[in-house]
From TrEMBL:
Transmembrane segments: none annotated. This is L-idonate 5-dehydrogenase. Residues 26-140 form the Alcohol dehydrogenase-like N-terminal domain. Gene3D superfamilies: Medium-chain alcohol dehydrogenases, catalytic domain, NAD(P)-binding Rossmann-like Domain. Its cofactor is Zn(2+). Residues 181-300 form the Alcohol dehydrogenase-like C-terminal domain. GO terms for molecular function: metal ion binding; oxidoreductase activity. InterPro entries: ADH-like_C (IPR013149), ADH-like_N (IPR013154), GroES-like_sf (IPR011032), NAD(P)-bd_dom_sf (IPR036291). Belongs to the zinc-containing alcohol dehydrogenase family. Pfam families: ADH_N, ADH_zinc_N. The lineage of its organism: Bacteria, Bacillati, Actinomycetota, Actinomycetes, Propionibacteriales.
Length: 344
C-alpha cells in the first residue's frame, strides 16, 4: 500500500499526523487496515499533559488502543476483508500474575499506545497496524465497526463491575461517579449485570443526559441535587480525588468501592478514616483481559450504548477531534475515522 499515516504525540500539546513506513506482517501476525479509533481519556492526557497518571511521554508515541478495522494481509484463519476488533494487551504470559490468570495487571504487558514502558508501545491510530493474531477477534455478523470500537472501553467497564465481587451488583443500588465514556459504559455494564438502580453523578448536564439514555435510573448534578442513600457499591469513574471521596462517603457501611478512573499522578488525598470506621472495601480495576470477548458479545447483542459516540472526525482533523473530546459539555466518545482523508 501507499504511505500510511499515524497520529503521534511528541509532547504536551504537540500532536502530529506523520507518515509511517508500511511494513509487512511477520510470522504469527496480520495486518489490519484500521477503520475507527476511539479517543480515550488516556490519549487526551498524553496530548494535553504529555503523560497519564505516572506515565510520561519520553519519545514520540503513536496514540490509540481502541481500534477496529478489516484484515488487509491475513492468514488462513483471518481472511482478507474480515472485520476485526483488536485486544490491545500482549501480556508476558510467564510472570506470577499471568500464571494466576490476572494478565491485565502483568507488569511486562505491551499495551497499544502506552508510555507505561520504555521504549513505549506504539499505538493503533495508524492506517495499517501489524498485530499478533492472538490479539485479533473476528467480529460477529451484524456488529458494525462503529459500534465494535466501543469493545475496548466496555471491557474496562465490565472488569470494573466484576471487581466489585461475584454477584455484588445484582439487584443492588450502585453509584457511578463521573459520566465520561467509561462511566457511561459502566452504567450499561451494571444494568446488563442485573443492578436494580444505577445512580450517576457528574458536574455537567450533558453527560448526565447520556447516562439516562444508557440505563441510569437516577442522576445527580454535583452541587445541585440530593443523593440517594443505601448505596451498596460505588464505582469511581471520574478520576478525581473528589469522586473517590464521594464514593467512600456515599456508599453504605460495609460497602464496596471500585476505583477505575485514573487519578492525577503523584499522591492523592485519601479519606482513610472513612474507610476504616465504616469498614469499607476499596479495590482497583485496571484494564481487562477475557472481558474483551464478553464486550464483543454484549455489543453484538444490542447493548444500548450508541448514544456514547457523539462525534467522528477524519484522521487529518485529529487535533480538532482531540480538542472537542476534551470538552465534556459537548462531547463524549469521539472517533477518528482512519479510512478517509488524506492528511494535509
Ligand atoms: Zn481506552
Ligand atoms: Zn505477565
Amino acid at each position: 500500500m501507499d504511505a500510511v499515516y499515524a497520529c503521534v504525540v511528541h509532547a504536551a500539546g504537540d500532536l502530529r499526523i506523520e507518515e509511517r513506513e508500511a511494513v509487512a506482517p511477520g510470522a504469527g501476525q496480520v495486518a489490519v487496515r484500521i477503520a475507527y479509533g476511539g479517543i480515550c481519556g488516556s490519549d487526551l492526557h498524553y496530548y494535553r499533559d504529555g503523560g497519564v497518571g505516572d506515565f510520561k511521554v519520553r519519545q514520540p508515541l503513536v496514540l490509540g488502543h481502541e481500534v477496529v478495522g478489516r484484515i488487509s494481509q491475513g492468514t488462513d484463519e483471518f481472511a482478507e476483508g474480515a472485520p476485526v476488533g483488536i485486544h490491545p494487551a500482549a501480556p508476558c504470559g510467564t510472570c506470577a500474575e499471568c500464571r494466576r490468570d490476572r494478565r491485565n495487571i502483568c507488569a511486562y504487558s505491551n499495551y497499544l499506545g502506552s508510555a507505561a514502558r520504555d521504549p513505549h508501545i506504539q499505538g493503533g491510530f495508524v492506517q495499517e497496524l501489524i498485530v499478533p493474531v492472538d490479539q485479533v477477534r473476528v467480529l460477529p455478523p451484524g456488529l458494525e465497526l462503529r459500534t465494535a470500537v466501543l469493545a475496548e472501553p466496555l471491557s474496562v467497564a465490565i472488569h470494573a463491575v466484576r471487581q466489585a465481587g461475584e454477584g455484588a451488583v445484582d439487584g443492588k443500588r450502585v453509584l457511578v461517579t463521573g459520566a465520561g465514556p467509561i462511566g457511561l459504559l459502566v452504567v450499561a455494564a451494571l444494568r446488563q449485570s442485573g443492578a436494580r438502580e444505577v445512580v450517576v453523578s457528574d458536574l455537567h448536564e450533558t453527560p448526565l443526559t447520556l447516562a439516562t439514555q444508557v440505563g441510569a435510573t437516577h442522576t445527580v448534578q454535583v452541587g445541585t441535587a440530593d443523593w440517594p442513600d443505601e448505596i451498596d457499591v460505588a464505582i469511581e469513574a471520574s478520576g478525581t480525588a473528589g469522586g473517590l471521596r464521594t464514593c467512600l462517603e456515599r456508599v453504605r457501611r460495609c460497602g464496596t468501592v471500585v476505583q477505575v478512573g485514573s487519578l492525577p499522578g503523584g499522591d492523592t488525598a485519601f479519606a482513610g478514616n472513612v474507610l476504616m470506621t465504616r469498614e469499607l472495601t476499596l479495590t482497583g480495576a485496571f484494564r481487562f483481559d477475557h472481558e474483551f470477548d464478553t464486550a464483543i458479545d454484549w455489543l453484538a447483542g444490542g447493548l444500548p450504548v450508541d448514544p456514547i459516540v457523539t462525534h467522528t472526525f477524519p484522521l487529518a482533523d485529529a487535533k480538532a477531534a482531540f480538542d472537542l473530546a476534551s470538552d465534556r459539555t459537548t462531547a463524549s466518545k469521539v472517533l477518528l475515522d482512519l479510512s478517509v482523508g488524506t492528511p494535509r
